[in-house]
Amino acid sequence: MATIDGLPPLREVIRAHDLVAKKQLGQNFLLDLNLTAKIARQAGDLSGCDVLEVGPGPGGLTRGLLAEGARRVLAVEKDARCLPALAEIQAAYPGKLDVINGDALEVDVLAHLTPPIRVVANLPYNVGTELLIRWLTPANWPPFWESLTLMFQKEVAERIVAKPKGDHYGRLALLAQWRCEAKIVLHLPPEAFTPAPKVHSAVVHLTRLPGPRFPADEKILSRITAMAFNQRRKMLRSSLKGLGPDIEARLEAAGIAPTARAEEISLEGFCALAREMAK
Ligand code: SAM
Fold it and tell me: Where in the numbering of this chain does the Ribosomal RNA adenine methylase transferase N-terminal domain appear (predicted)?
């Protein structure tokens, strides 16, 4: 059967290289190349960009990224069993794909990338969240990437884009939305993956803003939101009392009712409180 890039269908690739999915590596593969091309399109115009792909596996999404015209893809894969399949893609797209066999939490990718850079990944849930937090909290802003297009389990995706008053609203939403535009661009049922996971998934697209949406000191904002959401059902005058005896006055000065709860406060409100605490 012909594919978009003339390479064998992914089922054949997996069979040929005996890529039996390993649970401990979170291996749930995407085998539909139309779907992987669709995910690649959510990342925006790739033609002038280097793409960092984390966890390419047998290369379904990698092929989608290359078919959609990525200038270059740097793929970081922990499982060495995937390297022969990725080498076939390298041969079909000469000079366009570099592969590093390593752990994305440890590899220094920056030396291998030229801006502008977009990040695209279908990663195990725990690794994805850890990398997202790292990518959102670089030493300096702007970060090395223009956008992040990442697959998460649906519940995590909802936490990233959540607005106040919902169950999913918390630190991850505030962190993501403070300096990024974040939206869910695609929902995927378990059957989209082989093997099918137990949960639904969603692709989140984050575009970096030039700076913070509202001014605030990052460390103070992080401390306040950690305290507030660690006791999310408590009134703020109680959950934040460790910030000092005048916390009620500070909350009021920031325009926040001391009896309000963390999940009711907008990003703008938390930033106002962080500025008040910095005085
Ligand atoms: N991108 C492929 C796809 O969409 O079909 C594979 C996705 S699968 C959910 C996750 C991939 O990430 C696997 O290939 C796995 O080996 C790889 N992986 C898991 N942990 C990793 C890590 N710490 N660093 C790099 N790759 C990792």
Answer: 35-210
What is the DSSP-derived secondary structure letter of residue 246?
T
d(CA 172, CA 168): 9
Question: CA–CA distance from 72 to each of 65, 69, 93, 117 (Å)?
Answer: 9, 8, 10, 10
Best residue among 38, 79, 97 to mutate for probing ligand 1, ranked by most atoms within 8 Å of CB: 79
Indicate if ligand 1 lies below 6 Å from the C-beta of 27: yes
What's this model's pTM, rounded to 2 decimal places? 0.96
Q: What is the pLDDT of residue 126?
A: 83
| Chain centre distance of CA 182 | 10
Find out whether the beta carbon of 147 lies less than 6 Å from any atom of ligand 1: no
pLDDT at 3: 79
Instruction: For the chain, list the domains and their CATH numbers.
Output: 10-208 (3.40.50.150), 218-278 (1.10.8.100)
